[in-house]
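Assemble and predict.
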Amino acid sequence: MSEVSGRPVGGRDGSEGGGEHGDAGRRERLLARAFVRLADTLADEFDLVAFLHGLSVDSVEIIGAEAASVMLADTRGALRLVASSEERMRVLELFEIQSAQGPCLDAFGTGQAVQASAAESRRRWPVFAPRASEAGFRVMCAVPMRARTDTIGALNIFRGNDEPFSDSELEIARAMAQVATIALIQERAIRERSLLVEQLQTALRSRVVIEQAKGMLAEHLSTTVDEAFQLLNKYARDHNRRLTDVARDVVDRKLSHEVLARRRAE
Amino acid sequence: MPKSERRARIVAAVTERGEITRVDELMQRICLFAMSEIAISGCTLALLAGTEPVGTLAGAGRHSGTITELQFQLGEGPCLEACASGIPVLLPDLAIDGAARWPVFTVAAPLGVRAEFCFPLGVGTSCIGVFDLYRDVPGMLSDDHLADARIAADIARDALLYLQEPPGHPGLAALLELVGMDRIVVHQATGMIAAQLDETPPAALARLRAAAFESGRSIYDIAQDVVERRVRFGE
């Protein structure tokens, strides 16, 4: 945070001031690092909350905001706060959701980026703005997280002084929101596919296990495999269990052939 | 070429020969696409449950089926490794690249198969099958052909995965009924041998494979003998 508040305030594009060259280089490095982090969704242990927390912290650093947060739509389309760079922001954003007004809700609703000065925000969001100013925020901005025609959430960046976010800063915010959106969608698709792979694997394995259990039972009971199958089936039905689970128990020797043989006698 | 464009191109090539009504037809078309667009002499699409072979789905060209099937019978080979690791296994010269890793398979591989490229059908390390490509001359596939093969494998995977929706979709059940019928006897024999030796099924299957290898007979023949009680393991 101290780096952010100590940052030299230049013109609208941050192109004035003595340290502008080094500043741009630093920003570039930060941006590159952030994008690498955003590509992490492909890693095995992807943590959605940590990922979005990283996004808000990076936004503060790179864009030169005081605080940032990310809201995502839940399955019913209602916005939820998922990450914020600091506690003050978290409390304020929860209030935004509660009061149903504010920059994030507007960006999400319209699919367009929103920026407002302290004066504008008092006009636009009469309930929300006073709370934001109490929390020390003056300039408020939100960019939508958009995938094709869907808006899945929004990234908020707030500033404690009256310097509006420049066009290039807004551009960076949009780019970060965009990459985060792609990463999130990719992660959802991967998760969905993994689930389907597991399902199919289970289906394929269950065939193997059932045949193995038939063979095992047939050997123990000196019957044919067809007869063994009928015993398995009957046991599963009588105990209201899935055939695959009963077969698995037989193969793992958790269910003895004596128990199944008894059913044959009945 | 961007990935989405490549995928669209392959989907178009696969579907241009007319409407596909059954999934085994789609699998066959994917094999035919590979035969016409990728520099190979044969290929096979096969289903596996993890590393447990389930059966072949489709194939085209020379040695189609036999080389994948051989790996299923032996329980070793690049296909099984690709499926276990979730990473493609590329062998531009099977005799050199394969000899140390799979000595039995490399020696037993049909004459004429000189290079093999196996692409897992899966997500991460979880696999449901393999796209096995081979050719009669050694040498690496071009980057373009490798990319085509990878995407063709993804298309086959997605077709299989999304067939499950909604649950109990008849397409998948019908497919599974067709696939791997010949292996059923191996699973049953595995269960019987496990009981005879008081062993786990994987250990029993290894014994069955070893017996097939030693006797030079096919695993199906021996499995049939076990199920019909002409052959016993143990004492």
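DSSP finds eleven helices and five strands in chain A.
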